[in-house]
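Re: Re: ligand-bound prediction request (bumping)

Still looking for help on this. To restate: I need the protein modeled with adenosine-5'-triphosphate bound, output as structure tokens. Inputs repeated here so nobody has to scroll up.
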Amino acid sequence: MLLEAKQLTQTFGSHVAVNGLNLQIARGSFTALLGPNGAGKSTTMNLLIGLTQPTAGQVIYGDEARIGVVFQSSVLDERLTVGENLQIRARQYRHVAPNKVAEVSTELGLNEFIHQRYGTLSGGQKRRVDIARALLNDPNILFLDEPTTGLDIQTRSAIWKLLQRLQQACQLTIVLTTHYLDEADAADNVYVIDQGKLVATGTATAIKARYAKAVLQLTTRDVEQLRERVTVRPTQCRGNQLTFTVPNSQVALDILTATRDLITTFEFRPGTMDDAFLALTGKEMR
Ligand SMILES: Nc1ncnc2c1ncn2[C@@H]1O[C@H](COP(=O)(O)OP(=O)(O)OP(=O)(O)O)[C@@H](O)[C@H]1O
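Reply:
Sorry for the wait, this slipped through. Here it is.
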């Protein structure tokens, strides 16, 4: 384990922002801390990177952990160029190889705007530069607080692809926070946090399989016969259309196979992270 948090707790006055969190981050893994606004993600991140001390509990690092952090708001100077910003930052670390800025700039595709002022870049370009800055001292664990917030959907997906590439190519351990449920699919491990508490953990697929039910809607030419044949009770029956809530696609397939001759059309929708979140917390993602 590269990093472990035990019973991590942070209170602000009477408000409990993080409430007894237990996290385990394996070397080389990609972890997403997922939750709505105010869930306690940034507070958790600040505790994990040692920026704040927990009210209770502890953070334990494995040997040789070297941390890189991409904060929610950039630490770079808007008036300086990308290259100048990175050079200045590189000089602040000891033992940074002279060609490091050139190396990360190429790795992250910054060369076409390396001479442009940071303040004039697009949101996605800025985020790439912020990530490059955090990689200058060769971290083996990279923390990113909401790296995709405010970006359009294509740019968000490009940032995730970039991070996955870094994870694989550089054996980087990645820990990020996000409130976009659909993004969690790409992580190896997801911690769903709500009101400072852990409500679920596992891969997005496992969380969905456990908490999000799929929906199968059948249109039939014989409602009575179909109801007789299917052992699962429909959740809705409207005219010649029946809706079933099913745990997975296999059960849907069994129903379809058993009723094939009675069905005119069907629709299947797998459970989403939104459904899982709703089932876990009783509320829609805010
Ligand atoms: N320094 C502080 N003083 C008082 N309350 C705080 C402080 N920092 C955070 N909080 C509160 O703790 C809770 C968790 O905040 P946090 O910023 O960790 O949430 P978050 O999940 O990162 O939200 P977002 O997605 O909006 O960034 C919120 O209710 C917030 O108001």
